[in-house]
Amino acid sequence: MKASSKVQYWLPRILAQLPARFQQGKMPYAFFFALTVIGVLLAYAVLSPYPYASVIFSLFAAFLMGLLWRVHRGMSLDLAVNLATGLGACVLLYGVWVAGGIYSPRLAWLLVLPLTPFYVIGRKAGIFWTAVVLALQLLTVAANHMGWITPFETGMAHVLSSFMTYALVTCVLIVVPLMYDHVYREALELGKSHQRELEERQQELMHSAQMREHFIALVSHELRTPMNAILGFNALLLARLGDKPEARKVLNHTRQSADHLMTVINDILDYSQLQAGQLVIQPETFELRKTIENAFELFLPRVKSMDLVYRMEIDEGLPQWVHTDRHRLMQVLVNLLGNALKFTHQGRVVLRVQWQNPGVLFSVQDTGIGIPQDRQAQIFSRFSQANGDIQSLYGGNGLGLAISRTLVHLLGGEIDFESKHGQGSRFWFHLPLAASAAPSTQEHTPNQLLHTRSVPWRFLIVDDHPVNRLLARQVLKNAWPDSVIEEAGDGQQALDVLQTKAFDLVLMDMVMPVMDGIEATQWIRQQLPMPAQNVVILGLTANVNPVDLEAFKSKGLNDVMLKPFVPEHMCAKVEHWLLHRG
User: Fold this and answer.
1) Does the bond joining 481 to the residue before it have cis omega, within 30 degrees of 0?
2) What 3-state class would DSSP assign to 75?
3) pLDDT per residue as tens digits for the range 213-238
4) I want to staple 121 with a disulfide (CB 3.0 to 4.6 A). Which of 125, 332, 356, 523 is the partner?
């Protein structure tokens, strides 16, 4: 067995026998060094030829043993080392003084004196005691020069003690650095071990975060897919009801519940994108007043059954057209209005929009329950509500305000609130909006009549969910009764159909088995012969991940719509691209 291996084998077993106090950090090595010094002192007490040496060295050894006991009882190791070093300096000065001063071999022990403070306490302590040693050496030189010290006398009586001095000093100068080098290596290995553990833990956390984001995105996608059918068929039924108020009331309640569920789904998805740094804005030019009115009117069915005043006040000087992310602006307004209505049972909820030239100030004021002072600092935190009973009493997921603040900041604005517990709240946000020119060309709006209703267009619906295909078929058939519609369950089936038949427009889902919409779109644009290669492709997907959507668009989509879709919006977009193809 190698010497290093023997040390690694026996050292832990020896250390395990020490008292618990001496098994920590540098304590074991300080303990063994103190024992070594005590042994040397006792040896000098026996071998030294100088007067009083036995008494002095024995007392010093007893003092060190007393310090070990005090350290065991709780004394600071740094204090004990400084006390031992100070007394050691005094004893060495005495030994040097009676043994010839600068010519004494005992002077060699002064070389060892700063080592323990340096390695045990630190660099500053080592430098301080080195300065003390240099001062003692200069003192002995001066004492020799002034004749205060008796000249050194050679003789056989000094041979053994002098040899012992030089031999022990030589050993100490090697052993002490080796001892603390071992301490350093152990500490280094321990640090590396901790670093490896931290890196492994970091990898685990990163993997967990990725899996969490993937899971949230997957769940959101899977939830949006059936919501597409629920909302879509609900809209179709509402359009066919005619004068049936009771049935229309039931469907309106269904639509409100579905809209609430979509809000929760969108908040979860936005939170996932926020965590991944993928929450982005998509500016467009739009009519500001109409967007505000749409957000306000969304809650009119709910307000009809409530005993409160629901009012909107819009500044007449507000610009007609602005350029920002319309969807995100409406999302913030809906969140603030929804919160105000949720926490206000009577009184009023007022939406005010003021033109400040520059910028627009939006505010929602209510007379609801308000927010306690001690909870106001956390109100914009994720998953935070005023207190633990709020969620159980009023519902919600605690994400709306956190996401709204992030969206306002992304839009370049600021958001804040004022509230008094029991008296209501006022949430406001300011956006740096300016008047914009009206867009030169406008797409069809849902309220416009279709100009091609009688044209027998040929449509291909590509979706792996039969219910979604049925919904799209019904929407297209209602808009274009003479149209020819075919279906495919995945991208490969779509390619097979497109190679044998011509179509005017393809509704393409993104996430499908066998071949997804991204790959299918690329094949159509690059591999199919003309004119099939130039067919209009409208993406229709529940996947709202910006990276995936960008990849989908880059393969040759004409446009993309998200599920759940509004039937009128989809028909308007379909007709727009049918009229502007090529």
Assistant:
1) no
2) coil
3) 677 667 766 777 777 777 777 777 77
4) 125
Here the tokens at position 35 are: 């024992």
> Helical H runs in 242-343?
245-275, 288-297, 300-303, 326-342
Q: Select from 140, 111, 546 the least CA-distant residue to 327.
A: 546
pTM metric for this prediction: 0.51
**314, β-bridge pairs:** 353
For residue 91, give the nearest of 143, 37, 146, 35 by alpha carbon: 37
Strand 424-431 to 414-420 pairing: antiparallel
Distances (CA, A) of 107 to 46, 54, 110, 134, 141: 19, 18, 6, 11, 11
Nearest to 558 by CA among 534, 530, 542, 541: 534
- Please state, in angstroms and rounded to a whole number, the distance separating the CA atoms of residues 146 and 151: 12
CATH of domain 283-431: 3.30.565.10
φ, ψ for residue 314, nearest 5 deg: -115, 130
293-345 pLDDT tens trace: 888 988 887 788 778 899 999 999 999 999 998 888 988 998 899 889 888 88
Task: From 346, 231, 355, 351, select the one nearest 299 (Cα to Cα).
Answer: 351
Closest CA to 464 of 415, 499, 515: 515
- Residues forming beta bridges with residue 538, ordered by sequence position: 507, 559
Res 504 pLDDT > 90: yes
Q: Pairing between strand 307-314 and 414-420?
A: unpaired
Domains in the chain: boundaries: 3-153, 283-431, 458-579
Q: State the alpha helices, DSSP H only, in 48-122.
A: 53-72, 77-98, 109-112, 115-116
CATH code at 458-579: 3.40.50.2300
Nearest by Cα to 364 from 319, 316, 416, 439:
416
State how far the Cα of 252 lies from the Cα of 272, in Å rounded to an integer: 30
Q: How far is CA 281 from the centre of its chain?
A: 21
Inter-residue contact 84 to 65 (CB < 8 Å): no
Show the beta-strand stretches assigned E in 445-545: 458-462, 484-488, 505-508, 536-541
Can you spell out the DSSP letters for 438-461?
Answer: PPSS-PPPTTSPPTTTTS--EEEE
Query: Are the beta carbons of 506 and 473 closer than 8 angstroms?
Result: no
Structure-block tokens of residue 505:
């427009």
For residues 232 and 507, the answer to whether their CB atoms sit within 8 Å is: no
**Beta bridge pairs of residue 139:** none
Handedness of CA 22, 26, 32, 34 (dihedral sign): negative
For residue 411, which amino acid is it? L
